[in-house]
Design goal:
Length: about 325
């Protein structure tokens, strides 16, 4: 089964066997490969990132330009890295050997020549277009990353903009005080700007969760949940500043928080980002391996997830069916109050 040393442009005859997996999917076992000749391979197709979703160009060599906005190691195969390419609102993963150490290209504008595919492996079947490269020579740097990793325009508030337009923005920066931190990668900071007093951040891979009260500068890419602006893939720099005093906690009931005057379900956004005290019964404590630093608080039949990543002492001494007042910053997300 030893394969010949092949080059791009070689014409080969390959034989093997086709099998069915346990879930009735075909896979091919390679047996022999015979080189028949050589030809000049066609030049790569020059295609913008936004047009790579065309099935007609699957498995073709392409050339495209984009900005590298992120880098991470493949969670299934540490021998490979993912670089995230961005052009306007379009994001496409670039797969490269880990040994190339191309994380140095984050924030660079590049031209990439590689193989376009619509799957990554037999396990990942629905990822959409992605590009694979074999060597560093497949990437040409058009604009290098800035020397100052935090020298990006400040995020300013604006309205009446579509999610696509928000995602099309380039990297932005914001400064503020950390007032909440949860799930090892999420922050809420107070900016001091009355037009946008609070902003939620999602940290990039490898970033360390800061402590509440820290003064930080954050750079990341704007997104929106249609209610507010947020930054994702965020890198942080801790700044020197005076210690921030806690504001007085506001006692709140679950009905005041989650119902309008008519009794309909409605979150009162006046509490968003405020320090509140809410009373309830601890109905569940998640295991550290499942969801560390999380509990469920039963407030008159309504169960609220409480994250205490920023103050792990809260979980000490609590048990299921324990009645207590919980003093936390109120934040709303997909799975967190």
């Amino acid at each position: 089964k030893a394969c010949l040393a092949l080059n791009v442009g070689d014409i080969v005859a390959i034989s093997g066997r086709v099998h069915l997996s346990s879930n009735l999917e075909r896979w091919t076992e390679y047996l022999t490969c015979v080189k028949l000749g050589e030809t000049t391979p066609p030049p790569p197709c020059c295609i913008p990132l936004s047009a790579l979703d065309d099935p007609a160009i699957n498995l073709k060599m392409i050339e495209t330009e984009a900005t590298v906005i992120d880098s991470s190691t493949d969670d299934l195969d540490p021998g490979f890295d993912f670089l995230t390419l961005k052009d306007g609102p379009t994001l496409v993963p670039l797969i490269c050997p880990h040994k190339l150490r191309l994380d140095k290209l984050v924030d660079a504008r590049v031209r990439v020549k590689g193989l376009l595919r619509r799957e990554l492996s037999s396990e990942r079947k629905f990822v959409g277009p992605n590009i694979s490269i074999a060597s560093e020579s497949d990437i040409t740097v058009l604009t290098p990353p800035p020397e100052d990793k935090f020298a990006f325009p400040r995020l300013v508030p604006f309205s009446y903009t579509s999610p696509k337009e928000v995602v099309s923005l380039g990297k932005r920066s914001i400064e503020g005080t950390v007032i909440a931190a949860w799930q090892n990668s999420h922050l809420l900071i107070r900016t001091g700007d009355e037009r946008m007093p609070l902003i939620r951040l999602e940290l990039a891979a490898g970033e360390t969760l800061p402590a509440c009260g820290d003064q930080v500068t954050a750079v990341g890419y704007p997104i929106t949940d249609v209610f507010r602006l947020m930054l994702t893939r965020v890198r942080l720099r801790k700044e020197q500043g005076p210690a921030q005093r806690d504001e007085p906690a506001v006692p709140v009931t679950i009905s005041a928080l989650l119902q309008c005057r008519e009794g309909h379900t409605h979150f009162d956004y006046r509490y968003y980002g405020r320090l509140v005290t809410i009373r309830g019964v601890v109905s569940s404590l998640f295991s550290p391996s499942e969801r560390p630093n999380r509990m469920l608080l039963d407030c008159n039949g309504v169960k609220i997830p409480i994250d205490y990543s920023a103050n792990t002492s809260i979980g000490e001494g609590h048990s299921v069916c324990h009645m207590d007042d919980i003093r936390e910053i109120c934040a709303v997300g997909a799975d967190l109050l």
